[in-house]
Design goal:
Layout (H helix, E strand, L loop, with lengths): L1 H12 L3 H11 L7 H8 L8 H11 L5 H6 L2 H9 L6 H13 L16 H5 L1 E8 L9 E11 L3 E10 L2 E11 L3 E8 L5 E7 L7 E9 L8 E10 L14 E2 L3 H10 L5 H15 L7 E3 L2 H17 L8
Antiparallel strand pairs: 1-2, 1-8, 2-3, 2-9, 3-4, 4-5, 5-6, 6-7, 7-8, 8-10
Helix pairs in contact: 1-6, 1-7, 9-10
Length: about 325
């Protein structure tokens, strides 16, 4: 699919592969988009493995395109977005679309073993999850969880999320549904039977970070408040077995503590790691807000009572009875 996207990029910009290499170099002098790699990728022999390449590509094309979109979008989606910003001959676009259809690359449905960087292959792995604690007793803190995204049958994925709460491991799992740009999992808690939704953004290669929104009802909460918060999955590059790793459940939202977790996962060096940790904290705790969306039974009940009173005093217009 990358080969067709590159061919369409050349047409849209009206340049040769050599010219495209120069544009990549202008964006990043240390780019991996060398002439040798360009012909290899144009020939469909392989695809870029570095997310930086897709980010550079997006900067060249401009508009509202992003590196993650270029990496994950189907050819049809990419062509539609590119045509909105660049003039692409209709006949050329039709030819490339036919080629994409004949090779099964027009849609964003990826087979599990299709291509070097299929979406399923990108997502699979072991992650540390970081999100805001929903517990009122731990308000303002982060909660750490464990995530495993693995094969589910021959053509799908399964997400398993776990937290250490009250001296035991609470586990929820469910199938992952992915359309190439977004991934969702409706996980069922094995202890309570409640459902929890993970709505995630599909990352660009090499997919070290997956982010999105986590929603459901708070566990061990008197009112079982419906809650939603941002969540980050950070890929675990350590050699240690996560099942035997001792890790605290709650964490103060401090950059140095998040950086320490990143170090345990195999990330470095220290100064860059700390900067990254600060950005993660800002994502999970946006400035000017609590970062947690919740609806308490009392607040919903009070609104319902007001509406009930309206329904009891309402009189239908004459002729409508």
């Amino acid at each position: 699919m990358v080969a067709l996207k590159l061919k369409l990029t050349l047409v849209a910009l009206g340049i040769s592969p050599k010219d495209l290499c120069r544009r990549f170099s202008a964006v990043n002098s240390a780019t991996s988009f060398t002439l040798q790699n360009a012909y290899k990728w144009l020939g469909g022999k392989s695809a870029p493995r570095m997310s930086q390449v897709y980010d550079e590509w997006a900067r060249i094309l401009g508009g509202d395109l992003t590196g993650s979109f270029i990496a994950a979008a189907s050819f049809e989606e990419f062509a539609t977005s590119l045509s909105a910003h660049h003039r692409v001959p209709t006949t050329t676009l039709a030819e490339l679309m036919r080629e994409a259809s004949s090779t099964g690359q027009a849609s964003s449905a990826f087979p599990l073993d299709g291509g070097t960087w299929s979406i399923n292959q990108l997502l699979m792995g072991r992650y540390l999850a970081l999100s805001l604690a929903w517990s009122q007793a731990q308000s303002g803190k982060l909660i750490l969880g464990q995530v495993d995204i693995s094969r589910n049958g021959t053509s799908g994925l399964k997400l398993t999320y776990s937290e250490a709460l009250f001296g035991r491991i609470v586990i929820m799992d469910g199938a992952v549904i992915c359309d190439g740009r977004t991934a969702q999992a409706m996980a069922v808690c094995r202890e309570s039977g409640r459902c929890y939704l993970f709505a995630l953004c599909v990352p660009s290669p090499p997919a070290n970070l997956i982010g999105g929104v986590f929603s459901g009802s708070a566990l061990h909460d008197f009112g079982a408040r419906p809650c939603a918060s941002r969540i980050l999955f950070i890929r675990d590059h350590s050699a240690a077995d996560a099942s035997g790793r001792s890790r605290t459940t709650y964490l103060e939202p401090l950059g140095k503590l998040i950086s320490r977790e990143l170090a345990d996962l195999g990330y470095g060096p220290e100064d860059e790691r700390l900067d990254c940790a600060e950005h993660m904290k800002e994502f999970l705790l946006p400035e000017g807000g609590t970062g947690l969306l919740e609806a308490t039974p009392d607040s919903v009940g009070a609104l319902g009572l007001l509406l009930d009173r309206l329904s009891n005093t309402w009189t239908a217009p004459r002729g409508a009875q």
